[in-house]
Design a protein that fits this description.
There is one protein chain. The chain is an alpha+beta fold. The protein contains six helices and five strands, in the order H-H-H-E-E-H-E-H-E-E-H. The protein has one domain: Roll (CBS-domain). Strands 3-4-5 form a three-stranded mixed β-sheet. Strands 1-2 form a two-stranded antiparallel ribbon. Strand 4 and strand 5 form a beta hairpin. The longest helix has 15 residues. The chain is elongated and about 85 Å long.
Length: 154
């Protein structure tokens, strides 16, 4: 009796999602902010769009920072302490200016490693020095679930 080789099936399964890139799973329609936006308006957009942060772009469309709910917490705390309204505070005073970005051609496995080794919840995605999207930890988890359903159970 001959022994059948299953190598052909194995190689075709392993190649199914071998090259998923950040650009394949990133979010493209972003809510973006300006350095001159008020913190109050930013918080309203967070609630309206059900997001927890986003990129800050200058007038030329270049990414100059990231603003998040955590950045807003400082202002909320200070406004109570100093009994001052939030309305006049600007994004440029609270945003994170040291922006960690990720290239759109990065594999999702390398992106997962970057998330694992950092405290970031999201990375702005850059292609040719231009903001093209954003990827989050959740996007990576969803991609891993989809990969598992296509490869590990066949």
């Amino acid at each position: 009796m001959a022994i059948k080789s299953f190598q052909g099936v194995r190689s075709s399964i392993s190649n199914v999602n071998k090259n998923i890139l950040v650009r394949d799973i990133m979010k493209r329609n972003l809510v973006v902010f300006s350095p001159n936006d008020s913190i109050f308006e930013v918080m309203k957009k967070f609630v309206k769009h059900k997001i927890s942060g986003g990129p800050v772009l200058n007038k030329n469309g270049k990414i100059v920072g990231v603003i998040s709910e955590a950045d807003c917490m400082k202002e909320i705390s200070d406004s109570r302490y100093f009994n001052m309204p939030i309305l006049d505070k600007r994004v440029k005073n609270f945003m994170q200016k040291n922006v960690d970005t990720i290239n759109s051609s990065t594999s999702i496995f390398d992106a997962a490693s970057r998330f694992y080794n950092s405290s970031r919840r999201r990375f702005p995605v850059i292609e040719n020095q231009k903001l093209v999207g954003q990827i989050s930890r959740k996007d990576i988890v969803i991609a891993a679930i989809n990969m598992q359903s296509q490869t590990w159970f066949k």
